[in-house]
Amino acid sequence: MKTLKAALIPLIIALSLPSGQAQTRFDDLEFKQFSTPEGLPNSMVHQIYQDRDGYIWISTFYGLFRYDGYEVRTYKSNLYTPGLLANNNVICAEEDYSHRLWIGTHEGLCVLDKQTGEIRKMKLEGISKHRLNEIHVTKDNKVYLGYIRGMAYYNAELDTLELMTSKNCKGEVPEQINIQTLLEDENGDLLIGTWQDGLFHYNIKENKFIHYPPLDESNSVLALFQDSKGALWIGTSGSGLYKVNFSPDKKTLSVEKAYKHDALNTLSLSSDYIYSIHEDLQTHSLWLGTRNGVSIMDLTDEGKFINYRESGSEHYLPVREVNTVFRDKNGLMWIGTKGAGVFHVNTRTRPFEVFYPRGNGKSFTDIISTLYVEESGASWVGFGYGIDYQSEDEKVTLIPSKRPYHISYSPSTREVLLAIHDGGVIVCRNGKIVHQYKASNCGFIPHDLVYWVHEDRKGNWWLGTYKGLSVRYQNGREYSFNQLPDADKLLSKEITSIMEDNDGSLWLATNNNGIVHVTGNMEQPESLQCKNYCIENGLLPINTPLCFLLDKSGKVWVGTEGSGLCLYDAQNDCFRSVHQEYNLPGDMVGSMEEDNNGNLWLGTNQGLVKLTITGEEKGRVRIFTVADGLADNFFNQNASFYRNGTFYFGCSRGIVTFNSKIAEENHSDVSLCITDIWIDGKSLEQMPENKRREISPFTADFTEQLIVPAAYSNFTICFASLTYNHPQQNNYAYRLQGLDTDWHYVNASNRNAYYSKLPPGEYVFELRATNENGDWGEIRKMGITIKPPFWATWWAYLIYAFISVSVLALIWWEIRRRLMLRNRKYLQKGETDKVHHIKFQFFTNIASDDEKFLQDAIACVNRHLSDTDFDVPQFIDEMATSRTTLHKKLKSLTGLNTTGFVRSIRLKAACNIMDGNKNIRISDLAYQVGFNDPKYFSICFKKEFGMQPTEYAMKAAKNA
Q1: Which of 423, 461, 428 is nearest to 441 (CA)?
Q2: Are strands 370-373 and 353-355 parallel, antiparallel or unpaired?
Q3: Which of 623, 686, 707 is nearest to 117 (CA)?
Q4: Element (H or E) spanning 901, and its range?
């Protein structure tokens, strides 16, 4: 680590300030802009505010906007929502503890009920101008309002606004005074900043005002803020920044320090006009929004300001007037400007350092292929071509024209071993080449393209090469397995990586041939046994293993290209992918290390991942990307190393190094919200009031039970995890209990769940999300009721049942009547026509669909009439239905079960055959209609028609 840090010296020098000052933590902050090109409807911002749910509200000259990190919802009066707000010039907004958003406009107050979505206008009586500059909700949920012509409060009991005057308040009341800002102090009292009337103090319990003496000639207070140490800061209009102290009784105040702009001092305030003040708790710095950009002051070094502005500063920000600065609950600093929209920046100290061993201190284009750091601190770094060795005394480049694949250490010889493309194995000591083993000068290298050298616990060298495995025993014996006549052919495959298990067996990664496990007596190469784990035998989900890791508990992990992280299942003797199970990013794991706490660190193709596999947080995933200071999100194969608490991961843009403890971050809550619900393609909140209330009386985020009437065929639930630094890194999972069997995982580009034509019933929608580092939050639930159509309700089914029973009774009565009539005729006529009535007939009152089904069934049996092997399963397959459905259908239409129906068709076919062939033999007839046994055929025939087949044939001959 000590030698690698030397690479940072040019970078530090290059970034040194021209004034000779040391580089500060506020230099080169990366501001992200959100303005009209990025989707903000207009760029003229008064205020930025975050509500208790996590939404960002942006008050602008032309409307109020709610931002969830992805999309903007507009609240303004226009062609589609006329008269929605008192005025579209929205100056401020703040939420109370009853889910109401109080909105101050140029023409008065509006109150948005976040639960129902209703907005109402409230007018303050007794003032001539209704511009509302400031709103403050106290800790006990009282609402105070600062107007351009006085101060008011909300009377909750009467649901009215009350103007504060000398008639209902004590002391020097700020009547008809332009209120600019309100601040609640540690005692729950209010400090009131005004335009040209200075500062007031209001004791809420005593209902009494105090007016302090003027601060300066202008006496205009535009901003008030109390920092984390209790100090009070005042931003003025033209007189700079004051730090003031109060007397214990709050009756007097004194200025402790004053800071102003000095054109000759680059570390002075950017402007004396200060519109907004806030503190960044991560850096303990004061942020000031001014008429000329943003000024940042470290509270441990007061009086020195880093200024971000459009011109005249080392730190560029394309803004002039900054109307508001604000810190959100996740620590991001927000800036609202007049004309440039919104900016935000993450000031958190990044845990990762990036080194560019061959770069110019700022960039790097040579791929890091392998890493090794000695106990002494000397480092070995393999590039696309060549290996750099660096110690405290020297830096040299070895084999500059060769590609290195792997660097390892030989404990038995205390030498570094280099596996080289077409260079065999190179042995080094103290940065110098000691010996080179090639196919031409030794017997254990079958090919000079060597991918891997592993020294086992007995001091033997195992090589993975282009032509397979080879070994050089400590006693000097040498073997190449591709040359051993009885060796397993798997040992001749191209081997790219080797790992030794706790039992001394070897795991080999091959090039597109899966994994090979080598067991047996490692000292006797002729007796070694191999087992292949590959996609062809189902023991590995993909044939491209990249890297191995044997963790402290003895588990074998393998990183693959395509199936991500896989784990060896010893019980079933196979590898299974756990990539989706842990919801890891991407589909590749190229490098793996384990820290001292048993956590896995994975270099993937979509960032660096910390995976907790033990303890209370088992399964927790932390994802780090370029947003956290990484050089790249793609990490190279086997280009990682871990020693003494420090990690090294190589990518195509340098080496990322960090301490695992430094990389620990506090688990931040996930503010998961349901941002909208669409019913048949229309937003719930845009539906007519009567229809919307039928579905839900609440807005999307407050809906706990969604009722979807039968008239609607589909619905969509939209959601967002309200983080704003890198919201595209958030992931989501949802499922509908009662329909989905597993979670659906989606990324930030697909933040909605769509369901269509669900069967009527009760469901529960479950939703969860991650923040930008992959931490999963709590499950959010919402009940969903799919209403059946009127014809499918319980009372409709009751009517259907009554009608069905009535119709069946009528049919039964009619059938019974006809049977009785037919029997009477038979008694009168005798049995002369009996033969004609035993022909195949069924009821004639069959519905058309059922008639087709019956015809298909008869045709199916007739096609297999002489097939004695035709049975019920084959009948079911050809009818393309289930056993139960076929049975029920035939029973309802013919009164016969499946077997009886087939037998009846065969017997009636026998009658038809005898009608056409009077002399046919009964045994031949039985076989023609699918009976194996003529005797059994005769029994069935008599049971069906009441006579033997011979009797029927004789009667048929007579009738002919």
Answers
A1: 423
A2: unpaired
A3: 686
A4: helix 898-916
Long-range contacts of 441-446 (CB under 8 A, 24+ apart): 442/472, 442/478, 443/478, 443/479, 443/480, 444/470, 444/471, 444/472, 444/478, 444/479, 444/480, 445/470, 445/480, 446/470, 446/480, 446/481, 446/482, 446/483
> Residue 698 is encoded by which pair of tokens?
């609440």
pLDDT bracket for residue 745 (50, 70, 90): very high
Q: Which among 582, 590, 528 is positioned nearest to 562, based on CA atoms?
A: 590
Specify the 3-state DSSP secondary structure of 854: helix
Between CA 12 and CA 695 the distance in angstroms is: 61
Read off the tokens for 514.
Answer: 């899966």
Secondary structure of residue 839 in the 3-state scheme: coil
CB 275 within 8 A of CB 322: yes
Do 64 and 58 form a contact (C-beta atoms < 8 A)? yes
- If asked whether residues 810 and 755 sit together in one domain, one would say no
Q: Residues for the chain: how many in total?
A: 960
Type of residue numbered 376:
S
Q: How does pLDDT run across 397-420, given as a tens digit for each residue?
A: 999 999 999 999 999 999 999 999
* 265 CB-side CA count, 13 A: 12
Report whether pLDDT(840) > 80.
no
CA distances from 606 to 584, 627, 656 (A): 9, 12, 15
Q: What is the CATH number of the domain that holds 937?
A: 1.10.10.60
pTM comes to 0.73
Contacts 24+ apart (CB under 8 A), 82-90: 84/119, 85/110, 85/119, 85/121, 86/110, 86/121, 86/130, 88/61, 88/62, 88/63, 89/61, 89/62, 90/46, 90/59, 90/60, 90/61, 90/63, 90/64
Distance of CA 260 to the CA centre of its chain: 47
User: What's residue 774's pLDDT?
Assistant: 80
Mean pLDDT of 513-517: 97
Q: How far is CA 663 from CA 189, 231, 353, 546, 616, in A?
A: 41, 32, 11, 25, 19
Let me know if residue 351 belongs to a domain: no
**807 and 949 inside one domain:** no
**331 falls within a domain:** yes
| pLDDT above 50: residue 8 | no
Assign 3-state DSSP to the chain and report helix, strand, coil percentages, each to 5. Answer: 20, 40, 45
What gap in Å lies between CA 865 and CA 854, rounded to an integer? Answer: 16
Residue 509 in any domain: the answer is yes
What b-and-e string marks burial along 577-595, b requiring 16 or more CB atoms within 10 Å of the CB?
bbbeebbbbbbbbbbbbbb
Mean pLDDT of the chain: 89
Q: Which residue reads 């979670």 in tokens?
A: 743
Query: In CATH, what number is assigned to the domain containing residue 278?
Result: 2.130.10.10
The count of other CB atoms within 10 Å of the CB of residue 746 is 16
- Pair of tokens at residue 155: 């009377």
Answer whether 341's CB lies under 8 Å from 34's CB.
yes
- Final residue belonging to a domain, choices 330, 345, 360: 345
Q: What confidence category does residue 664 fall into, taking pLDDT thresholds of 50, 70 and 90?
A: low
Nearest to 349 by CA among 280, 299, 448, 290: 280
Per DSSP bridges, beta strands 199-203 and 190-194 are antiparallel
* CB-CB contact of 556 with 567 (8 Å): yes
What is the extent of the structural domain holding 300?
32-345
Per-residue pLDDT, 853: 85
Neighbouring C-beta atoms of residue 943, cutoff 10 Å: 10
Alpha-carbon distance of 143 to 154, in angstroms, equals 5
Q: Which two tokens stand for residue 156?
A: 């909750």
Share of the chain above pLDDT 90, in %: 67
Helix axes 883-894, 898-916, angle to 10 degrees: 60
